[in-house]
Specification:
Elements lengths: L1 E4 L16 E5 L5 E5 L8 H12 L6 E7 H10 L3 H12 L5 E2 L1 H10 L3
Antiparallel strand pairs: 1-3, 1-4, 2-3, 4-5
Helix pairs in contact: 1-2, 1-4, 2-3
């Protein structure tokens, strides 16, 4: 997942929530991506991290948007045992509707499937 920062935010790295098992890292080109920690990661940690990053876009203070590939999202939802939502993401890709999800899409998924 790529995280797009606002103009006011030069960098955002490290853990956003200890309980997810994921953190943000930067590349040499100044882009920011999620990374799995080497320690314990709960089964719903990836999904919670994606949802947390999507929530951060609501006020646009630090994060303006996120980009999540459909397979990463589908896997995160499946691991979190949100099977219906996971299947819908897979179907959207198979029907050539959606290959990449942004923050608004993630927040809509949360609402639609009560996640």
């Amino acid at each position: 997942m790529e995280v797009l920062l606002s103009e006011q935010c030069l960098a955002l790295t490290g853990m956003l929530d200890r309980g997810t098992g994921y953190y943000l890292r930067s590349t040499k080109k100044g882009r920011f991506f999620s990374q799995r920690s080497k320690g314990f990661v709960p089964s719903d940690g990836h999904w919670r991290f994606i949802a947390l990053c999507a929530e951060l876009t609501r006020n646009k203070l630090y994060v303006t948007d996120i980009k999540v590939h459909w397979l990463e999202l589908q896997t995160a939802l499946y691991e979190a045992r949100h099977f219906t939502a996971s299947e819908q993401v897979r179907r959207n890709y198979a029907d050539k509707c959606k290959a990449t999800y942004n923050a608004r899409d993630i927040l809509n998924l949360k609402t639609t499937f009560d996640l």
